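Researcher: Next sequence.
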Amino acid sequence: MIEFTADGNVAVITMNRPEARNAVNGAISSGLEAAIDRLEADDTLWLGILTHTGPVFSAGADLKAIAEGRFRELSTARGGFGGIVLRSRTKPLIAAIDGPALAGGTEIALTCDLRVASTAARFGLPEVKRSLIAAAGGLVRLPRTIPLAIAMEMVLTGDPISAERALNLGLINELCEPGQAFDTARRLADRVNANGPLAVRESRRLVLESFTQTDEESITAAGRAQMELRGTDDFAEGPRAFIEKRAPVWKGR
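Model: Next structure:
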């Protein structure tokens, strides 16, 4: 139910359970965790794109599994819900969303570092409509991503928002026409991968850690990271390529 392919330096991870609106079950959870493991372990892969088949990105948890008491299969020990929302990783992940991402689907999208969506997408945390809690990160990550008042409205009403509104609120990075989400995400991936992959990973880490640090702690940590990069091939390649007026050739080491 999870497909994994490599496209140059990009890993393409596809949720392929369209008959169930890509609802998260045991196979999706274990498959997503394994896909992230592959992305992290392969030095030739610098970034991942999480996409889907069918008209729905993900409807969230498989309610049939919940009704039958099979809660545990929806999570993994390391990754949490969907095998991904708590999964520690170093490489950027872009969500390519070409349909509704609701409940756990929104939470999986929020787990990604960047999000591209078509006008066919919608985002929402409708758990309260079923007397459930959005317990896979939505209550934490959504108010960190969009204004608090709007996040609270989405959480308390359970009503979704359109992709157009998501763009205006900063929930997604780019908006495109239906059928174009993956291509748009692929172009965004190329923009990221034009940069030094080691610097990209360290910069991502520093941004995320800054939420729990003082300015002094964050700036000090950035300085340490810069010093650690000085011994890498890519650190030498960046200035050299600039002086020689050519595109850098990154090695990722």
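Model: The longest helix spans residues 26-41. The mean pLDDT is 96.
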